[in-house]
Amino acid sequence: MCNSCLLLDIDSIKMFNFIRNTNLPRKAYAQLAKFWGSRIHVESLYKLFRHILELSNIETTVYDCCINSCCAFTGTDYKTAELCPYCHEPRFDKHCRSRNTFEYIPLTSRIKSMFLNCSLTERMTYRSNFEFNAGCYDDVFSGSHYQHLTSEYVVVDGVRHPHLFFSDSHDIALGILTDCHIHPQLSTSGPSDPSSLPPLLLH
């Protein structure tokens, strides 16, 4: 890769961070491009975001979802639904276009990106270096559920594998929390019974 291309990539990353960290309005960014675009590297927002997307090597997946955000239309129960099963709002407008969409970054892409960051990779070794003390509850890794898993063999589709859960230092423990589990008494437009939650978007 030529040095000039690398410098343009770095400029784009710096500009993207500048926009995100300062909440720079689109109109203000357009003025930057208009008045100083010939002196400094300022792309249009569309080109900048496309450039960052290419550099990140992350592909997003777009799902239709309820206009009131009750659920995403995924899985066998919802993929072909034309009405929200909770608030009964129509999925499509009069032009047969989805009224609301959800742009999802697959979990695998996000985890891969974490390992590209040296500092974050170092911090992610916390779990594997955690020293369990049965007489003290220091962290979630002190919990009985996690400790039980560390002595249990991994079983996938009924097939037992030769390794234990979290036996590899690169294994990642994921905790998934939803509003319904955290606040079961809240009254929302979505499902109140956790057992009726739609499929999780994990890829």
Write a brief caption for the model:
This protein has 9 helices and 4 strands; from the N terminus they run αααβαβααααββα. It is mostly helical and 203 residues long.
Protein topology:
Elements: H1 3-22, H2 26-36, H3 45-56, E1 61-64, H4 75-78, E2 101-104, H5 107-114, H6 118-123, H7 126-129, H8 144-149, E3 153-156, E4 159-164, H9 179-182
Antiparallel strand pairs: 1-2, 3-4
Helix pairs in contact: 1-3
What percent of residues are in strands? Answer: 5-15%
Per DSSP, the total helix count is 9
Task: Note the run of SSEs as H and E.
Answer: HHHEHEHHHHEEH
Shape type: flat
The helix-and-strand class reads mainly alpha
Any overview of this molecule?
The chain has 2 domains: 3-56, no CATH class; 61-196, no CATH class. The chain is flat and about 65 Å long. It has helices at residues 3-22, 26-36, 45-56, 75-78, 107-114, 118-123, 126-129, 144-149, 179-182; strands spanning 61-64, 101-104, 153-156, 159-164. The strands form 2 sheets. The chain has a two-stranded antiparallel ribbon with strand order 1-2. Strands 3-4 form a two-stranded antiparallel ribbon. The chain has 203 residues and is mainly α. The model is unreliable at 181-203 (pLDDT under 50). Helices cover 37% and strands 9% of the residues. The longest helix has 20 residues, at 3-22. The chain contains 9 helices and 4 strands, in the order H-H-H-E-H-E-H-H-H-H-E-E-H.
Provide the descriptors you would attach to this structure in a database record:
2 domains, 4 strands, mainly alpha, disordered C terminus, flat, two-stranded antiparallel sheet, 203 residues
